[in-house]
Give the backbone structure.
Amino acid sequence: MRMELLITALKSFVFINSASSLISLLDRLSNSNILIFSISLDRMAFSISFATFFFAFLALLAVVVAQLSPNYYSSLCPTALSIIKGAVSNAISQERRMGASLLRLHFHDCFVNGCDGSILLDDTTGFTGEKTAFPNANSVRGFDVIDTIKTQLESKCPGIVSCADILAVAAHDSVVALGGTTWSVQLGRRDSTTASLSAANSELPSPFSDLSDLISAFSNKGFTAKEMVALSGSHTIGRARCTTFRTRIYNETNIDAAFASSLRKNCPSAGGDDNLASLDTVMGDVFDNDYFKNLVSQKGLLHSDQQLFNNGSMDSQVNAYSLNSATFFADFAKAMVMMGNLSPLTGSSGEVRTNCRNINGS
Ligand code: HEM
């Protein structure tokens, strides 16, 4: 009886794979004496191996279903990628820094419970999102650009392109527009119906972190220390507020003296918290390997930046990237794909938000 059930299950598996000849073979086997003989000998072994096979098949199916793909919108919304690219290019032509801000939005989305667009949700009465978390408040920007893109996409292909995917593509297009490298952006993420203020506060790295904290913050998300260094190369673009680097320019000794004194002019020891400085003082809005050159000459803006080159285990990697932008670009591209793969919602999980700021129907 149990054997018959197994054969029925196996038949339906074979049916899925359209191997009708194997079905008829199983039909013949199920009526044969040989089978009865083999049941008595191998019943246990067959049950166990079939169960293993069946569960492995289910696991594989789950992985296949959950997989993102670069062609996800090819037929669902063929103009999606060009709409995003056009809007990103337009935003950057109005303000070059916006490319940096869009890249950071994707990072801050992915590191907090995966790339699910949770960072875009506005607070409402009864719902607290991630925007007021310490690393985000008065800091992350680019929400209007995402709104513009979403509005354009909704008028072309309503309900199709997720906010999480918009962030992933906008980050990529920003890096390319600012002179950086390209990668194949995986797509098909869906949007969360939740957000986590506490995870945003605890899982995003702090500019006051030492190397060991940075390594563990990234290792918690599955990245090696080398991948953490490559991703940190993002600080070749964009700005930071005085409040994030004040202690470094007034109190630290592993900093180039002229560099520190020039920064002090616009970042007083008290006040001016929101005054900005370029994270890369050489060529601020170009995506290149200057960030690593800066670190080698003790011109990292944030305490956390200079930690990557401070007589520690990452010095040689920073040195290598400072000398070879091609290896930095290659490693950065790989790490960005990894980052974009952090716990995406797929299949019927989550939703595709109509407005990136609100859960549908709220
Ligand atoms: C390694 C740990 C990291 C720390 C501690 C860190 C911290 C910071 C801080 C404090 C700022 C300035 C924020 C402000 O003053 O408002 C900043 C800016 C920025 N970060 Fe990071 N970050 C890290 C890694 C990353 C990664 C992995 C990426 C991207 C993949 C990234 C992309 C950016 C960009 C592009 C900016 C400039 C944003 C703008 O100008 O609007 N950062 N980061």
